[in-house]
Predict the 3D structure of the following.
Amino acid sequence: MLPRLNIKGRKIWMLSALLIVAIVFSFCHIKITKVTIPATAQVGDVVPIQLDLDVSCNSDGSDKLIVGVLMPKGWKGTQNMTATYTSSKGNGSFAMTPLTTLAPHGDGKNWPDYMRATFGIAGNLIDDMEWVVMQSDVPFTYANNDKITGSINLNLKVGADDNPTIVKLAYVVANTTNGFTSDNFVDGGYGATAEYYNEYIGDCFSVTGGGGDLVDFCNPQLTTVSPPKSLDNDLVTLTFDSNVIQTDLSGNDELYLCATGTTNDGQTIAICEQTTRTQMKPLGGGRFAITIWPRSFFGVSDSQTVTNMTYFITDKTGTKQVGYGNTAAPFTYKFKCG
Amino acid sequence: MNRYILIIAVWLFSSCRVEEIAPVAEAPKNVTGSWKVIKATRNGTDITSAFDFTQFRLKFDSADNYTLVNRLPFLVNKNGKYKLDDPAYPFKLTMMPDGGSAVSTSFNYPTIAGIRQLSLTFIPGCELNSYIYTLEREN
Protein backbone atom coordinates (compact mmCIF):
# COMPACT_ATOMS: atom_id res chain seq x y z
CA MET A 1 0.00 0.00 0.00
CA LEU A 2 2.67 2.47 1.02
CA PRO A 3 4.87 2.12 -2.10
CA ARG A 4 1.80 2.74 -4.28
CA LEU A 5 1.02 5.89 -2.32
CA ASN A 6 4.62 7.05 -2.71
CA ILE A 7 4.51 6.61 -6.45
CA LYS A 8 1.23 8.52 -6.64
CA GLY A 9 2.65 11.32 -4.50
CA ARG A 10 5.74 11.59 -6.63
CA LYS A 11 3.64 12.02 -9.73
CA ILE A 12 1.53 14.65 -8.06
CA TRP A 13 4.67 16.50 -6.98
CA MET A 14 6.12 16.37 -10.46
CA LEU A 15 2.88 17.59 -11.99
CA SER A 16 2.63 20.36 -9.40
CA ALA A 17 6.24 21.41 -10.03
CA LEU A 18 5.63 21.53 -13.76
CA LEU A 19 2.46 23.58 -13.20
CA ILE A 20 4.27 25.98 -10.88
CA VAL A 21 7.12 26.36 -13.38
CA ALA A 22 4.54 27.02 -16.10
CA ILE A 23 2.77 29.64 -13.99
CA VAL A 24 5.89 31.38 -12.69
CA PHE A 25 7.72 31.42 -16.01
CA SER A 26 4.83 32.06 -18.37
CA PHE A 27 5.58 35.56 -19.56
CA CYS A 28 6.12 37.81 -22.51
CA HIS A 29 7.97 41.10 -22.59
CA ILE A 30 5.95 43.77 -24.37
CA LYS A 31 6.54 47.24 -25.77
CA ILE A 32 4.62 49.91 -27.64
CA THR A 33 6.78 50.70 -30.65
CA LYS A 34 4.65 53.43 -32.17
CA VAL A 35 1.49 55.44 -31.49
CA THR A 36 -0.39 56.97 -34.41
CA ILE A 37 -2.93 59.67 -33.55
CA PRO A 38 -4.24 62.69 -35.49
CA ALA A 39 -2.55 66.00 -34.63
CA THR A 40 -5.79 67.55 -33.34
CA ALA A 41 -9.48 66.77 -33.08
CA GLN A 42 -12.79 68.51 -32.55
CA VAL A 43 -15.02 68.00 -29.53
CA GLY A 44 -17.26 65.04 -30.34
CA ASP A 45 -14.91 63.48 -32.92
CA VAL A 46 -14.19 59.76 -32.77
CA VAL A 47 -10.39 59.72 -32.83
CA PRO A 48 -8.62 56.65 -34.22
CA ILE A 49 -5.49 55.78 -32.25
CA GLN A 50 -3.22 52.95 -33.30
CA LEU A 51 -0.73 51.35 -30.92
CA ASP A 52 1.87 49.10 -32.60
CA LEU A 53 3.22 46.38 -30.33
CA ASP A 54 6.16 44.01 -30.21
CA VAL A 55 5.94 41.02 -27.89
CA SER A 56 8.77 38.64 -27.04
CA CYS A 57 7.91 35.45 -25.12
CA ASN A 58 10.28 33.43 -22.98
CA SER A 59 7.97 30.52 -22.26
CA ASP A 60 4.78 28.82 -23.24
CA GLY A 61 1.60 30.27 -21.86
CA SER A 62 -1.72 31.92 -22.39
CA ASP A 63 -2.83 35.41 -21.29
CA LYS A 64 -5.31 38.10 -22.11
CA LEU A 65 -3.88 41.40 -23.29
CA ILE A 66 -4.59 44.50 -21.23
CA VAL A 67 -4.64 48.06 -22.60
CA GLY A 68 -5.19 51.16 -20.50
CA VAL A 69 -5.62 54.74 -21.72
CA LEU A 70 -5.24 57.78 -19.47
CA MET A 71 -7.74 60.51 -20.38
CA PRO A 72 -9.82 63.30 -18.79
CA LYS A 73 -12.65 61.96 -16.60
CA GLY A 74 -15.03 64.25 -18.46
CA TRP A 75 -14.56 62.22 -21.63
CA LYS A 76 -16.37 59.29 -19.98
CA GLY A 77 -14.01 56.81 -21.60
CA THR A 78 -15.79 53.68 -20.41
CA GLN A 79 -18.76 54.73 -22.55
CA ASN A 80 -16.84 56.33 -25.38
CA MET A 81 -13.91 54.06 -26.21
CA THR A 82 -13.85 50.85 -28.23
CA ALA A 83 -10.85 48.79 -29.30
CA THR A 84 -9.89 45.95 -31.63
CA TYR A 85 -6.59 44.21 -32.31
CA THR A 86 -4.82 42.62 -35.22
CA SER A 87 -1.78 40.45 -34.63
CA SER A 88 0.30 37.56 -35.86
CA LYS A 89 -1.67 35.48 -33.33
CA GLY A 90 -5.06 36.47 -34.67
CA ASN A 91 -7.53 39.32 -34.55
CA GLY A 92 -10.24 40.24 -32.08
CA SER A 93 -11.70 42.94 -29.91
CA PHE A 94 -11.39 44.37 -26.42
CA ALA A 95 -14.01 44.72 -23.70
CA MET A 96 -13.96 46.94 -20.62
CA THR A 97 -12.21 45.23 -17.72
CA PRO A 98 -14.79 44.79 -14.94
CA LEU A 99 -14.07 46.97 -11.91
CA THR A 100 -14.50 43.86 -9.78
CA THR A 101 -11.55 42.15 -11.49
CA LEU A 102 -8.44 42.43 -9.35
CA ALA A 103 -5.13 42.95 -11.13
CA PRO A 104 -2.33 40.41 -10.54
CA HIS A 105 0.40 41.84 -8.26
CA GLY A 106 -1.95 44.78 -7.67
CA ASP A 107 -2.25 44.49 -3.88
CA GLY A 108 -5.99 44.03 -4.10
CA LYS A 109 -6.54 46.86 -6.56
CA ASN A 110 -8.56 46.60 -9.74
CA TRP A 111 -6.87 47.48 -13.02
CA PRO A 112 -7.75 51.22 -13.18
CA ASP A 113 -6.65 51.76 -9.57
CA TYR A 114 -3.48 49.71 -10.14
CA MET A 115 -2.61 51.85 -13.17
CA ARG A 116 -3.36 55.02 -11.25
CA ALA A 117 -1.13 53.88 -8.36
CA THR A 118 1.70 52.84 -10.69
CA PHE A 119 1.65 55.49 -13.40
CA GLY A 120 -0.20 58.41 -11.78
CA ILE A 121 -1.45 60.97 -14.30
CA ALA A 122 1.64 60.72 -16.53
CA GLY A 123 2.89 64.26 -16.05
CA ASN A 124 -0.43 66.02 -16.59
CA LEU A 125 -1.04 68.97 -14.27
CA ILE A 126 -4.73 68.70 -13.38
CA ASP A 127 -5.82 65.69 -11.38
CA ASP A 128 -9.11 65.13 -13.14
CA MET A 129 -8.08 62.09 -15.16
CA GLU A 130 -8.75 58.38 -15.16
CA TRP A 131 -7.30 55.19 -16.60
CA VAL A 132 -9.81 53.41 -18.80
CA VAL A 133 -8.79 49.75 -19.02
CA MET A 134 -9.82 47.06 -21.52
CA GLN A 135 -8.89 43.42 -21.95
CA SER A 136 -8.80 41.22 -25.04
CA ASP A 137 -11.86 39.09 -25.69
CA VAL A 138 -9.87 35.86 -25.61
CA PRO A 139 -6.46 34.86 -24.24
CA PHE A 140 -3.64 34.63 -26.74
CA THR A 141 -1.53 31.49 -26.58
CA TYR A 142 2.20 31.74 -27.08
CA ALA A 143 5.23 29.48 -27.19
CA ASN A 144 8.76 29.92 -25.97
CA ASN A 145 10.76 32.27 -28.24
CA ASP A 146 7.61 33.56 -29.95
CA LYS A 147 8.06 37.03 -31.42
CA ILE A 148 4.60 38.50 -31.86
CA THR A 149 3.71 41.74 -33.61
CA GLY A 150 0.36 43.42 -33.63
CA SER A 151 -1.65 46.60 -33.39
CA ILE A 152 -4.36 47.84 -31.05
CA ASN A 153 -6.84 50.12 -32.79
CA LEU A 154 -8.63 52.42 -30.37
CA ASN A 155 -11.63 54.56 -31.28
CA LEU A 156 -12.05 57.27 -28.69
CA LYS A 157 -14.85 59.82 -28.81
CA VAL A 158 -13.26 62.91 -27.31
CA GLY A 159 -14.73 65.81 -25.38
CA ALA A 160 -17.91 64.31 -23.93
CA ASP A 161 -17.82 67.18 -21.42
CA ASP A 162 -17.96 69.69 -24.31
CA ASN A 163 -14.69 71.29 -23.14
CA PRO A 164 -11.83 72.16 -25.51
CA THR A 165 -8.88 70.33 -24.01
CA ILE A 166 -5.11 70.03 -24.20
CA VAL A 167 -3.92 66.79 -22.62
CA LYS A 168 -1.15 64.21 -22.65
CA LEU A 169 -2.87 60.91 -23.36
CA ALA A 170 -0.92 57.93 -22.03
CA TYR A 171 -1.16 54.23 -22.84
CA VAL A 172 -0.22 51.10 -20.91
CA VAL A 173 -0.15 47.53 -22.20
CA ALA A 174 0.24 44.48 -19.98
CA ASN A 175 -1.08 40.96 -19.57
CA THR A 176 -3.45 39.31 -17.13
CA THR A 177 -0.76 37.21 -15.42
CA ASN A 178 2.22 39.41 -14.69
CA GLY A 179 0.74 42.84 -13.94
CA PHE A 180 3.39 45.56 -13.75
CA THR A 181 6.36 43.35 -12.94
CA SER A 182 9.65 42.71 -14.65
CA ASP A 183 12.50 40.21 -14.56
CA ASN A 184 16.25 40.49 -14.46
CA PHE A 185 16.86 39.04 -17.87
CA VAL A 186 18.09 41.27 -20.61
CA ASP A 187 15.73 41.35 -23.56
CA GLY A 188 16.87 44.07 -25.92
CA GLY A 189 14.44 46.97 -26.14
CA TYR A 190 11.98 45.74 -23.53
CA GLY A 191 12.84 48.14 -20.74
CA ALA A 192 15.77 48.32 -18.36
CA THR A 193 14.78 45.10 -16.62
CA ALA A 194 12.73 43.49 -19.36
CA GLU A 195 9.22 44.44 -18.35
CA TYR A 196 6.00 42.54 -18.81
CA TYR A 197 4.25 45.87 -19.38
CA ASN A 198 4.96 49.13 -21.15
CA GLU A 199 3.84 52.73 -20.77
CA TYR A 200 3.82 55.29 -23.59
CA ILE A 201 3.13 58.96 -22.84
CA GLY A 202 1.98 60.97 -25.85
CA ASP A 203 2.69 64.60 -26.68
CA CYS A 204 0.16 67.29 -25.81
CA PHE A 205 -2.99 66.57 -27.82
CA SER A 206 -5.47 69.36 -28.58
CA VAL A 207 -9.21 69.01 -28.81
CA THR A 208 -10.83 72.19 -30.08
CA GLY A 209 -14.41 73.42 -30.36
CA GLY A 210 -17.07 72.78 -27.75
CA GLY A 211 -18.97 75.23 -25.63
CA GLY A 212 -17.00 74.87 -22.39
CA ASP A 213 -13.85 76.48 -21.04
CA LEU A 214 -10.44 75.33 -22.22
CA VAL A 215 -9.02 72.69 -19.86
CA ASP A 216 -5.25 72.59 -20.25
CA PHE A 217 -3.79 69.53 -18.54
CA CYS A 218 -0.46 70.05 -20.32
CA ASN A 219 0.82 73.55 -19.63
CA PRO A 220 1.30 75.30 -16.29
CA GLN A 221 -1.50 77.79 -15.69
CA LEU A 222 -1.47 81.10 -13.87
CA THR A 223 -4.58 80.02 -12.00
CA THR A 224 -6.09 76.63 -11.30
CA VAL A 225 -9.46 75.72 -9.83
CA SER A 226 -9.96 72.86 -7.39
CA PRO A 227 -12.02 70.73 -7.56
CA PRO A 228 -11.79 70.98 -11.35
CA LYS A 229 -15.55 70.46 -11.61
CA SER A 230 -17.86 72.07 -9.08
CA LEU A 231 -21.18 73.76 -8.51
CA ASP A 232 -21.89 76.99 -6.65
CA ASN A 233 -22.64 75.01 -3.48
CA ASP A 234 -19.13 73.50 -3.41
CA LEU A 235 -16.14 75.00 -1.69
CA VAL A 236 -13.96 76.14 -4.58
CA THR A 237 -10.25 76.88 -4.29
CA LEU A 238 -8.61 79.29 -6.76
CA THR A 239 -4.81 79.10 -6.81
CA PHE A 240 -2.54 81.67 -8.47
CA ASP A 241 1.01 80.65 -9.37
CA SER A 242 3.18 83.72 -9.92
CA ASN A 243 6.10 81.58 -11.12
CA VAL A 244 4.47 80.58 -14.39
CA ILE A 245 5.34 83.82 -16.18
CA GLN A 246 6.44 87.32 -15.21
CA THR A 247 3.36 89.47 -14.56
CA ASP A 248 2.55 92.86 -13.05
CA LEU A 249 1.97 91.03 -9.79
CA SER A 250 5.37 89.33 -9.66
CA GLY A 251 7.00 90.08 -6.33
CA ASN A 252 3.71 91.08 -4.68
CA ASP A 253 3.07 89.35 -1.39
CA GLU A 254 -0.53 90.51 -0.99
CA LEU A 255 -2.97 89.44 -3.66
CA TYR A 256 -6.75 89.63 -3.97
CA LEU A 257 -9.52 88.06 -6.00
CA CYS A 258 -11.70 90.29 -8.14
CA ALA A 259 -14.61 88.19 -9.40
CA THR A 260 -17.89 88.63 -11.22
CA GLY A 261 -20.55 85.96 -10.93
CA THR A 262 -23.45 85.42 -13.31
CA THR A 263 -26.66 83.85 -12.05
CA ASN A 264 -29.18 81.64 -13.79
CA ASP A 265 -31.57 84.59 -14.02
CA GLY A 266 -29.01 86.78 -15.75
CA GLN A 267 -27.86 88.90 -12.83
CA THR A 268 -24.17 89.81 -12.66
CA ILE A 269 -22.63 90.34 -9.25
CA ALA A 270 -19.15 91.86 -8.98
CA ILE A 271 -17.09 91.38 -5.84
CA CYS A 272 -13.98 93.40 -6.50
CA GLU A 273 -12.65 94.75 -3.24
CA GLN A 274 -9.37 94.43 -1.44
CA THR A 275 -10.48 93.15 1.95
CA THR A 276 -10.12 89.97 4.02
CA ARG A 277 -13.12 88.61 2.10
CA THR A 278 -11.11 88.51 -1.13
CA GLN A 279 -7.54 88.20 0.15
CA MET A 280 -5.60 85.18 -1.06
CA LYS A 281 -3.50 83.22 1.40
CA PRO A 282 0.19 82.80 0.55
CA LEU A 283 1.09 79.12 0.15
CA GLY A 284 4.83 79.77 -0.23
CA GLY A 285 6.93 79.63 -3.36
CA GLY A 286 5.00 82.43 -5.04
CA ARG A 287 1.66 80.63 -4.88
CA PHE A 288 -1.52 82.10 -3.41
CA ALA A 289 -4.96 80.58 -2.87
CA ILE A 290 -8.45 81.53 -1.80
CA THR A 291 -11.30 79.14 -1.07
CA ILE A 292 -14.79 80.49 -1.60
CA TRP A 293 -18.31 79.20 -1.24
CA PRO A 294 -19.68 80.85 -4.42
CA ARG A 295 -23.28 81.06 -3.17
CA SER A 296 -22.18 83.00 -0.13
CA PHE A 297 -19.34 84.89 -1.82
CA PHE A 298 -21.70 86.35 -4.43
CA GLY A 299 -24.61 86.54 -1.96
CA VAL A 300 -27.23 84.94 -4.19
CA SER A 301 -30.75 84.19 -3.00
CA ASP A 302 -32.09 80.68 -2.38
CA SER A 303 -33.83 80.70 -5.75
CA GLN A 304 -30.70 81.70 -7.67
CA THR A 305 -27.68 79.70 -8.74
CA VAL A 306 -24.32 80.99 -9.89
CA THR A 307 -23.71 79.53 -13.34
CA ASN A 308 -20.29 80.97 -14.12
CA MET A 309 -17.76 83.52 -13.03
CA THR A 310 -14.97 85.59 -14.48
CA TYR A 311 -12.10 86.79 -12.36
CA PHE A 312 -8.83 88.67 -12.13
CA ILE A 313 -6.08 88.58 -9.53
CA THR A 314 -5.16 92.04 -8.23
CA ASP A 315 -2.68 93.73 -5.92
CA LYS A 316 -3.83 95.50 -2.75
CA THR A 317 -4.56 98.74 -4.59
CA GLY A 318 -6.71 96.98 -7.14
CA THR A 319 -4.95 98.86 -9.95
CA LYS A 320 -2.65 96.05 -11.05
CA GLN A 321 -4.56 93.07 -12.25
CA VAL A 322 -3.73 89.86 -14.08
CA GLY A 323 -6.14 87.96 -16.31
CA TYR A 324 -6.15 84.88 -18.49
CA GLY A 325 -2.72 84.18 -19.97
CA ASN A 326 -1.50 87.48 -18.43
CA THR A 327 -3.82 89.48 -20.71
CA ALA A 328 -6.57 92.02 -20.05
CA ALA A 329 -9.19 89.26 -20.48
CA PRO A 330 -10.46 87.66 -17.29
CA PHE A 331 -10.07 84.03 -16.26
CA THR A 332 -13.35 82.20 -16.77
CA TYR A 333 -14.98 79.32 -14.92
CA LYS A 334 -18.29 77.54 -15.45
CA PHE A 335 -20.01 75.84 -12.54
CA LYS A 336 -20.88 72.41 -13.91
CA CYS A 337 -20.21 68.78 -13.12
CA GLY A 338 -19.90 67.12 -16.55
CA MET B 1 -11.43 4.93 48.36
CA ASN B 2 -14.05 5.10 45.65
CA ARG B 3 -16.48 6.48 48.17
CA TYR B 4 -14.12 9.39 49.00
CA ILE B 5 -13.66 10.20 45.34
CA LEU B 6 -17.43 10.19 44.89
CA ILE B 7 -17.91 12.50 47.89
CA ILE B 8 -15.26 14.93 46.63
CA ALA B 9 -16.78 14.90 43.16
CA VAL B 10 -20.27 15.60 44.52
CA TRP B 11 -18.85 18.35 46.71
CA LEU B 12 -17.03 19.93 43.77
CA PHE B 13 -20.10 19.87 41.54
CA SER B 14 -22.35 21.15 44.28
CA SER B 15 -20.02 24.12 44.82
CA CYS B 16 -20.80 25.39 41.31
CA ARG B 17 -23.75 27.60 40.88
CA VAL B 18 -25.17 29.51 38.00
CA GLU B 19 -24.55 33.18 38.28
CA GLU B 20 -26.88 35.32 36.25
CA ILE B 21 -25.39 38.52 34.96
CA ALA B 22 -27.88 41.07 33.83
CA PRO B 23 -26.77 42.53 30.48
CA VAL B 24 -25.85 46.18 30.65
CA ALA B 25 -28.03 48.19 28.30
CA GLU B 26 -26.21 50.33 25.73
CA ALA B 27 -26.80 53.96 26.52
CA PRO B 28 -28.77 55.90 23.91
CA LYS B 29 -26.55 58.19 21.86
CA ASN B 30 -27.23 61.72 22.91
CA VAL B 31 -26.20 64.26 20.29
CA THR B 32 -27.98 67.25 21.77
CA GLY B 33 -25.89 70.36 22.04
CA SER B 34 -24.01 72.76 19.82
CA TRP B 35 -21.38 71.31 17.50
CA LYS B 36 -18.53 73.14 15.76
CA VAL B 37 -16.26 72.05 12.90
CA ILE B 38 -12.76 71.03 13.99
CA LYS B 39 -11.72 69.47 10.70
CA ALA B 40 -12.99 69.60 7.13
CA THR B 41 -11.87 67.60 4.12
CA ARG B 42 -12.80 67.85 0.46
CA ASN B 43 -12.13 64.74 -1.62
CA GLY B 44 -9.73 63.62 1.12
CA THR B 45 -7.74 66.88 1.22
CA ASP B 46 -7.72 68.79 4.50
CA ILE B 47 -9.20 72.25 3.86
CA THR B 48 -9.72 73.22 7.51
CA SER B 49 -7.33 76.15 7.30
CA ALA B 50 -8.28 77.13 3.75
CA PHE B 51 -11.74 78.41 4.67
CA ASP B 52 -13.36 79.94 7.73
CA PHE B 53 -15.34 77.14 9.37
CA THR B 54 -15.17 78.69 12.85
CA GLN B 55 -18.54 80.45 12.79
CA PHE B 56 -20.61 77.44 11.71
CA ARG B 57 -22.68 75.68 14.39
CA LEU B 58 -24.92 72.63 14.16
CA LYS B 59 -27.32 72.48 17.09
CA PHE B 60 -29.43 69.48 18.09
CA ASP B 61 -32.08 69.82 20.79
CA SER B 62 -33.92 67.17 22.78
CA ALA B 63 -37.15 67.79 20.83
CA ASP B 64 -35.49 66.36 17.67
CA ASN B 65 -34.90 69.77 16.11
CA TYR B 66 -31.67 70.84 14.50
CA THR B 67 -30.55 74.37 13.74
CA LEU B 68 -27.83 75.65 11.43
CA VAL B 69 -25.98 78.78 12.50
CA ASN B 70 -23.83 80.67 9.96
CA ARG B 71 -24.51 78.21 7.19
CA LEU B 72 -21.87 76.44 5.12
CA PRO B 73 -22.12 73.89 2.32
CA PHE B 74 -23.62 71.00 4.25
CA LEU B 75 -25.93 68.01 4.10
CA VAL B 76 -28.91 70.39 4.35
CA ASN B 77 -29.30 74.13 4.03
CA LYS B 78 -32.40 74.72 6.17
CA ASN B 79 -33.33 74.03 9.78
CA GLY B 80 -35.59 71.07 10.52
CA LYS B 81 -35.96 67.77 12.36
CA TYR B 82 -33.46 64.97 12.83
CA LYS B 83 -33.54 61.34 13.86
CA LEU B 84 -31.14 58.45 14.41
CA ASP B 85 -32.11 55.08 12.96
CA ASP B 86 -31.49 53.41 16.36
CA PRO B 87 -31.10 55.33 19.61
CA ALA B 88 -28.56 52.90 21.07
CA TYR B 89 -26.75 51.62 18.00
CA PRO B 90 -27.24 54.29 15.34
CA PHE B 91 -25.72 53.83 11.93
CA LYS B 92 -27.58 56.59 10.16
CA LEU B 93 -28.46 60.20 10.83
CA THR B 94 -31.43 61.57 8.91
CA MET B 95 -32.10 65.29 8.63
CA MET B 96 -35.48 66.53 7.45
CA PRO B 97 -35.26 70.21 6.49
CA ASP B 98 -38.44 72.26 6.77
CA GLY B 99 -40.22 72.12 3.45
CA GLY B 100 -37.57 69.85 1.96
CA SER B 101 -36.93 66.16 1.57
CA ALA B 102 -35.07 64.02 4.11
CA VAL B 103 -31.35 63.43 3.67
CA SER B 104 -29.39 60.67 5.39
CA THR B 105 -25.71 60.12 6.07
CA SER B 106 -23.60 57.62 8.02
CA PHE B 107 -23.51 58.29 11.73
CA ASN B 108 -19.90 58.21 12.89
CA TYR B 109 -19.59 59.07 16.55
CA PRO B 110 -16.12 58.12 17.75
CA THR B 111 -14.54 59.04 21.06
CA ILE B 112 -11.16 60.66 20.47
CA ALA B 113 -8.99 61.43 23.51
CA GLY B 114 -12.05 61.07 25.70
CA ILE B 115 -14.12 63.52 23.68
CA ARG B 116 -17.04 62.56 21.44
CA GLN B 117 -16.78 63.61 17.83
CA LEU B 118 -19.35 63.59 15.08
CA SER B 119 -18.07 62.89 11.60
CA LEU B 120 -20.52 63.62 8.78
CA THR B 121 -20.00 62.89 5.07
CA PHE B 122 -22.00 64.73 2.43
CA ILE B 123 -22.07 65.92 -1.18
CA PRO B 124 -23.47 69.46 -1.50
CA GLY B 125 -22.50 70.17 -5.11
CA CYS B 126 -21.10 67.94 -7.84
CA GLU B 127 -21.41 64.24 -7.09
CA LEU B 128 -17.68 63.73 -7.44
CA ASN B 129 -16.95 66.16 -4.60
CA SER B 130 -17.31 64.56 -1.19
CA TYR B 131 -16.84 66.46 2.06
CA ILE B 132 -16.35 65.28 5.63
CA TYR B 133 -16.87 67.62 8.56
CA THR B 134 -15.57 66.42 11.90
CA LEU B 135 -17.45 68.20 14.65
CA GLU B 136 -16.93 68.51 18.36
CA ARG B 137 -19.47 69.57 20.97
CA GLU B 138 -19.04 73.06 22.40
CA ASN B 139 -18.76 73.33 26.17
